[in-house]
Amino acid sequence: MTEILIAGAGIGGLTTALALRARGIPATVIERARDVRPLGVGINLLPHAVRELCELGLGDALADIAVAPAAISYYDASGTLLFREPRGIDGGYGHPQYSVHRGELQMLLLSALGPDGVRTGTQLIGFDDDGAHVTVRTSAGDFDAAALVGADGIHSAVRAQLHPGADPLQWSGVRMFRGAAPGEPFLDGRTMAIVKDDAAELVVYRIGGGLTNWVVLLPESEPGPLPGDARWNQPGDRSEVLAHLARWDLGWLDVADLIARTETVLEYPMVDRDPLPWWGAGRVTLLGDAAHPMYPVGANGGSQAIVDARVLADELARDVETGLRRYEDIRGPETADVVAANRAMHHIGTSRPEELARVTADYRRDTNADRSLT
C-alpha cells in the first residue's frame, strides 16, 4: 500500500511529497500529463515559503535559478515613484523573497523527488474511502493508500467529488496578460515594480535566466461568476495590451519594447473560488489551488501551497487519520483570510504614498506574512 497518494505534480503536490519523505513517510504523486515540462511564467515566493524549501535542503539550488528582490516599488504611468517597500532580507526577514520561473521551480522540485516519485500519464478518475484506507481509481489502474491529497489545481477532480454542488469560479472582472522576455535589468535589477493608471496595471520583475517577467491587468467587467471556462494558457493578443500602455513613458523601462520582444504572451482571467466550509473528509483532503484558489496578488498563491505542504506533513507525521483534520483546522482559516485579503488588495485605487504604506502593512498583517521576520 502506498502510504500517501498525492494527485497533481504542481508546486504544492511535489513539495508535499518532499516534506512527507523528509519525515519518513512514503509518498507517491500521480500526474495526468505524460511529460512534466517547465511551463508557465514567473511567480514570487514569500520568505516563509522560502524557509520551508530551505528546510528541505533546496536553498542553494533555488538561489541559483531565482532573483531575490530587495523592494517592491509603486509608480504612476509617468514613471514617478510613489512608495517603496523593502522585501526579503532587506525587509528584515530571515529568508529572501524569490522571483522565479514557475516551470524551473517545478523542475527543481521534481529533480529533488527523483524519478520514482511521480507516476505520469495517470489521471485520477475517482476514489472510495472505506475508513481504513482509500482506493484511488485512475487511468492506469487502482491504487490503495492510507490517505489521498488532492493537489490537482483549480479544476480539481478530488474537490469536485468531495464538493459536488455549485462551486463556480469567481471572476474579478480582470483579464491578465503575462509573459517573460530576455534583456537587461531595469532600475537596480532587484526591484519589483507596480505601475497603474485608470485603464491598466503592470507588474514587472526579474526572474532567473536573464528574463524580465511582466503581467498586465486589464479590467473588463464587474466581479462575478466566470462565464465559461478559465481557459488557462490561452495565447494572448499583445496588441490589446500595447493599446492600453501606449501613453506610458516610464523612463526606466520601455514597456512596449518589453512586450514586443516577448516570444509567447499568455492570457488568463483573474479568478478564485469562495472559501469552502470544510476541505476533506475521512482519509481525503485538499491542498494548494484545489483547496483555496486565490487571486495572484501579494506573492501568495505558490507560497500558501508550500506552507500547506509543511503543515500537512507535520500533522501526518503525528497521525494519519487525525492529522488530516488538524491540518485543515490550521490551514483552512489562514488561507480563507488570504483569499479575502487578496480580493481587498486587488481593489486598491490609491496613489498616495501614506495610503499605500497603510494598505501594504494591513495586507502583511491580514495574511500573516511577517511570520518569518527575525
UniProtKB/TrEMBL annotation:
Residues 2-163, 279-338 form the FAD-binding domain. It comes from the Bacteria. InterPro entries: FAD-bd, FAD-dep_Monooxygenase_BioMet, FAD/NAD-bd_sf. GO terms for molecular function: FAD binding; monooxygenase activity. The keyword Oxidoreductase applies. The keyword Oxidoreductase applies. Keywords: Monooxygenase, Oxidoreductase. This is FAD-binding domain-containing protein. It comes from Mycolicibacterium wolinskyi.
